[in-house]
Design goal:
The protein has about 450 residues and is of the alpha/beta class. It folds into three domains: about 170 residues, inorganic pyrophosphatase (n-terminal core), CATH 3.90.1640.30; about 120 residues, no CATH class; about 110 residues, Diaminopimelate Epimerase, Chain A, domain 1 (Roll). The protein is built from 17 helices and 13 strands. Helix 4 packs antiparallel against helix 5.
Length: about 450
């Protein structure tokens, strides 16, 4: 396979150099990718350092170049700016306009980077090509893929992610089961699991704590059982809950497609304790996000590297804060939604961290799915963070649209077809939105023609 040949080429290039600086993305997939790169270089006996960034821009590049590395290894980061440096390695899965010789990206091989391979997965392929013993890092690539929601569309990992999952299974790191797909099966009381259920929404239940409790008591669950986690319920109680959810969906005309989305694959980390956020790959990924996005990527990296004794306790504190921040941010963003001709947008200013606006935009895009949703939040150094999501997708390529719109105002941007982001100068938001709508209109017009 060509992608493996490219991985081998990258391996030989890395082996020729002594000092490598890893630059990785500030989210779960990026943290997992960075951890894989760290372990790979450590085992290879190379000197290395690591930086965590929101996006590749002139400031972040200058910081790295000042450290005089032999090689810069970008993981889970698209590069859409010119870099005056030759020894660059990129293991990523985003759409990009820049090409580098030592780059492994599924899009360059006609593969789907949205669901078929994550940034951590691309990094793992290089790591495994370095030494097959690095298969013991495969679980990190699975966590990274789940963190980027690559299992959500099919309710399972597909493409090259599937091959990586099989590696993790073969070395005894991951066990696959079929179970409910609502988030929090290991860590939330069951009534809270249903409270935030949104894919699919449970008619008359989701969004109301009182309705959730009533729903469960009517099914015969005791008050004590309502406060148990999903994994602690009996098979009979689980079956009753799922059957009633399916009945409600049918009664409201949701159809069999929504019902099938109730159940899917769950990836359990065999070496972690059941009932904790470390056991379920999706919950592990959320734990990583809740630390990295709040200024402590070092804690997230330690979790991935197995240094859990102190980092897990710290990460849990950040997780509780993340949940509260996300809830407040969602409430604020809903009051700020503005409608333009062909998109919706909101701007939360400095009242929400720029590292969280992407999560808020993703969640709200389910409620405002008919048009692309753009979220703004004030960032650092006079910039504004932009997040773009479009659930319905269609023929719109947000990655290209965001890149062009950001470039038109002196910013940088890119991402995936249906999920993209940018950094733009503060005060250029309206000009950016005008340019974005113009590009989206061009794409739609081209599709019609």
């Amino acid at each position: 396979m060509q992608i493996i040949e490219k991985a081998r080429e990258i391996v030989e290039f890395i082996k020729k150099h002594d000092n490598v600086h890893i630059v990785t993305h500030l989210d779960a997939d990026g943290i997992c990718a960075g951890a894989i790169a760290v372990k790979t270089l450590e085992r290879l006996g190379k000197d290395f350092d690591i930086s965590f960034v929101k996006q590749v821009d002139e400031v972040s590049i200058e910081d790295v170049l000042n450290k005089n590395p032999d090689v810069i290894w970008f993981t889970d980061l698209s590069i859409n700016i010119d870099i005056d440096f030759d020894n660059i390695v990129v293991t990523d899965h985003h759409s990009t306009v820049k090409r580098y010789r030592y780059s492994l990206n599924p899009h360059d091989f006609g593969l789907d980077g949205c669901v078929g391979l994550s940034g951590a997965g691309a990094t793992y392929i290089v790591s495994k090509s370095m030494d097959v013993k690095n298969e013991d890092l495969s679980h990190l690539a699975v966590i990274g893929a789940c963190g980027d929601l690559q299992d959500r569309r099919e309710r399972k990992l597909v493409g090259l992610n599937r091959d990586i999952l099989n590696d993790a299974i073969s070395v005894g790191l991951i066990n696959v089961i079929k179970d409910i797909q609502y988030f929090g099966r290991e860590s939330k009381p069951v009534f809270r699991l249903l409270l935030y259920a949104d894919d699919p929404v449970i008619p008359g239940v989701s969004g109301s704590e009182e309705a959730c409790i009533s729903f469960l008591t009517n099914l015969g669950l005791s008050r004590k059982e309502i406060y148990r986690k999903w994994v602690e319920l009996s098979k009979e109680k689980k079956r009753k809950i799922l059957s009633e959810i399916a009945r409600r969906l049918l009664d409201k005309g949701f159809g069999s497609k929504s019902i099938r989305r109730l159940i899917g694959e769950v990836y359990l980390l065999d070496n972690e304790k059941e009932g904790t956020e470390l056991h379920d790959s999706r919950e592990f990924a959320t734990l990583l996000n809740s630390t990295a996005r709040y200024g402590r990527p070092d804690i997230a990296l330690k979790l991935c590297l197995g240094e859990k004794e102190s980092s897990f306790r710290e990460a849990r504190k950040f997780l509780n804060n993340h949940r509260q921040t996300l809830s407040r941010g969602l409430q604020l963003a809903r009051t700020k939604i503005e409608k333009r001709k062909i998109l919706n947008y909101f701007h939360v200013g400095n009242r929400v961290r720029d590292t969280v606006v992407g999560s808020i935009t993703s969640i709200l895009s389910k409620e405002f799915s008919s048009l692309p949703l753009i979220g703004f939040a004030d960032g650092e150094n006079g910039h504004v963070k932009v997040s773009a999501r479009y659930r319905d997708g269609g023929e719109i390529d947000l990655s290209r649209a965001i890149y062009l719109a950001a470039s038109s105002v002196g910013g940088t941007g890119g991402g995936h077809r249906y999920a993209a982001g940018a950094l733009i100068p503060k005060g250029t938001e309206e000009i950016f939105l005008d340019a974005l709508e113009k590009e989206i209109n061009c794409q739609l017009s081209s599709d019609v023609l």
